[in-house]
Amino acid sequence: MNRTDRLYAIVEELRAVAPRPRSARWLAGRFEVSTRTVERDIGALQQAGVPVYAEPGRAGGYVVDRTATLPPVNVTAAEAVAMAVALRGLAGTPFHSAARAALCKLVAVMPAEAAASARDLAGRVHVMNRVSASPAPALIADALATRRVLLIEYGDRVGSTTVRRVEPLGYLGNLTHWYLVGWCRLRHAVRAFRTDRIVRVTATDEVAAARDLAPADLDIPDHLVTQLTLT
Question: Which of 50, 101, 154, 170 has minimal CB crowding within 10 Å?
């Protein structure tokens, strides 16, 4: 565990048992470091403004003020990934580093299960260069997170439409458009559907079996596509 992760973990450990204290020796054993390292970490937290204080006595230790610290955040996986997508648009600006740090802090205080879901969802979103601003139907976003099979009416470049059942696998964004990448049951293959050409969409009650989306399935040169991450 690196120091940044350990600092967040110490705060969450103290929050979980507050107002009871945790001794430096107990924390050292919990995080497999020396008591001196714990004392330095507590000092760093205090200098950063975290309300950690020491209780004296044999049963004393370190205590955090729960009312002045951030509890686990009730952010959905889709909301965390949306923030990661927005962060991509800040590349090259003075705000990129601050926004990245804020996202890391957010993920660090999410409940473990929600954070794992967010990382899984982020791994299925890919962006090409800059992110498109073209909208995608809300049903598509929901289906990607829940793996519900979609029934879509799709128009091709010449205006012909087909009705297909699609197992959502991921998103692909470029400078001008968003694409839904999915397993097309009509073509029995992975296909990319431009979201502005989806005439109608219905989310069925069927949950598709887990199916991995390999980078090779996108059929795009590696230097043109980047997989989204939460770091």
Answer: 101
